[in-house]
Design a protein that fits this description.
By secondary structure, the chain is α/β, with parallel strands linked by helices. The chain has helices at 18-22, 24-31, 45-50, 85-93, 123-130, 137-150, 167-182, 184-193, 210-220, 261-284, 290-295, 297-311, 323-335, 343-346, 350-367, 373-385, 403-408, 414-422, 430-433, 436-452, 454-464, and strands at residues 10-14, 35-40, 57-63, 66-72, 75-80, 97-102, 157-160, 199-202, 228-230, 235-239, 255-257. A hairpin with a 2-residue loop joins β3 and β4. It is globular and about 60 Å long.
Length: 465
């Protein structure tokens, strides 16, 4: 159902980072008639850069054939949750709000990635259970939905735009669990009336650097303190299950479908799984970006082997998709020299990402009797990376919710290291924790990384895959 643009309500977006501004916000702007109130859940930096510009910003497309800027004017306001959580709740509870979308990263849902369940011991969740003004994304969703119910308003649609498998189902589960702990009747109302469509999002958005700001100013003649960089490719697949009005997404290239699952599995495993693999191995081998890593023939061969021998055999193609052609397109995107997507940036929060991106493929493949040497090497590379020291002994700035625990698991004995990592129930599913064959393969891969380095082990994985 679509509202007339003249009377269209709005969207509140939690987690106003570069990705949403380079992806979802552009689709909303192109669909017309809708505006977005952004919410920063942590710091005022994005608000402070955008406010002097009237909330407008430049999205700069980085293609092999040059750069193309466009000015995006879909933002109406930006709120900073720690400064005024009540203002955020008021915006979400407004009758004019019909959709609350989110890009808060995997860790922002305060759940256990290996199970998808709410982590009730998370400090922000403990706070949100005891206080009416929340800190967490699930807390804001639950408290705002409670305010709407109390005011006699219908719920808003919760539109997750993060890289989580079945993200709508996961967020619905987390919200219902938290709501039930606060008010069982509220949980029943959300279950009966709410909507949590699943989505698949895809666009490579590298971090913006000071040099990007200077280059954009030289090219356009104006200074933008909050631009976003992005590749030409974009894709958004959305389950068409809303509990109220929505933009006419299908008119601007969004794929509105009945089931997102095969699309998200394709993307999470083929793109995000190999992105993470290249990030850890490439970083250890001394490559700064994914394009640099792909320019190394060893890693270009490795990623082809990951797709053809390990990932595609574990996938069911989505309707109308050719997985081999999708792999070819991914290879071209990775090799785009204009996209300076840093391996260090992609390597963040691996404990939250690996279960969805890599470990699911490994578990299913091992259960089916298929060898996965390349993906096993990628997991070993993650373990080597989070030790906090690279192959030359230089420190790595590890950013991960479990960073201190992960660093403490590193031992000189690879077998002891693997044993400690596999005991992480938050990361590894039981099928892998209890698989002695996987432990042995992972120990061999980690031993090789320590002895021979990432590049030599990547070449070996291709040769034996």
């Amino acid at each position: 159902m679509h509202r007339d643009p003249a009377t269209a309500g709005g969207i509140v977006h939690l987690g106003l980072g570069a990705f949403f501004r380079a992806h979802g916000a552009i689709y909303v702007a192109q669909a017309g008639g809708w505006g977005v109130t952004g919410v920063s859940l942590q710091s005022p930096g994005t608000r402070d850069r955008l406010k002097p510009q009237g909330w407008a910003y430049t999205a700069l497309e980085l293609g092999p054939d040059g750069e193309k800027p466009q000015v995006v004017t879909v933002l109406r306001d930006v709120l900073v949750a720690p400064e005024d959580p009540q203002a955020v709740l008021d915006a979400m509870a407004s009758p004019a709000t019909h959709i609350v979308s989110l890009t808060v990263t995997e860790k922002g849902y305060c759940h256990e990635p290996s199970t998808g369940r709410l982590n009730p011991g998370h400090p922000d969740i403990r706070h949100d259970l005891e206080n009416p003004l929340p800190r967490s994304a699930p807390g804001f969703l639950v408290r705002a939905l409670a305010a709407r119910r109390a005011a006699g308003l219908p719920p808003f649609t919760v539109l997750c735009c993060d890289n989580l498998p079945e993200n709508g189902r996961v967020v619905r589960g987390v919200v219902l669990e938290l709501a039930r702990l606060i008010d069982p009747a509220l949980a029943d109302w959300i279950r009966a009336k709410g909507a949590f469509p699943s989505t698949m999002v895809d666009r490579i958005v590298p971090a913006t650097t000071p040099a990007d700001l200077d280059r954009l100013e030289a090219a356009t003649g104006y200074r933008d303190e909050a631009p976003v960089m992005h590749e030409p490719f974009r894709q958004w697949v959305v389950e068409d299950d809303f509990c109220g009005p929505r933009p006419a997404f299908e008119t601007v290239g969004v794929q509105m479908v009945a089931d997102v699952t095969p699309f998200e599995h394709m993307k999470l495993r083929m793109l995000n799984g190999t992105h993470s693999s290249l990030a850890y191995l490439g970083y250890l081998a001394g490559h700064e970006t994914i394009a640099d890593t792909m320019a190394d023939p060893v890693f270009a061969r490795l990623v082809r082997g990951l797709w053809g021998d390990e990932i595609i055999p574990a996938l069911t193609p989505p309707p109308g998709e050719d997985l081999a052609a999708y792999a070819d397109a991914l290879a071209a995107r990775y090799a785009n020299p204009a996209i300076r997507h840093r391996t260090w940036q992609i390597a963040m929060d691996g404990s939250q990402k690996l279960p969805q991106r890599i470990l699911g493929t490994i578990a299913e493949s091992r259960a089916a009797g298929r060898a996965v040497p390349g993906l096993t090497l990628a997991v070993a590379a993650w373990m080597r990376y989070v030790s906090g020291s690279d192959e030359q002994g230089r420190p790595i700035e590890v950013r991960d919710p479990l960073a201190s625990r992960l660093a403490d698991l590193w031992h000189d004995d690879p077998a002891a290291t693997v044993k400690g990592f596999l005991a992480l129930a938050e990361v590894f599913p039981p099928t892998l924790r209890d698989d002695p064959g996987f432990a042995a393969d992972l120990t061999a891969a980690l031993s090789g990384l320590v002895r021979d380095g990432a590049r030599k082990m990547a070449a070996q994985a291709v040769a034996t895959g």
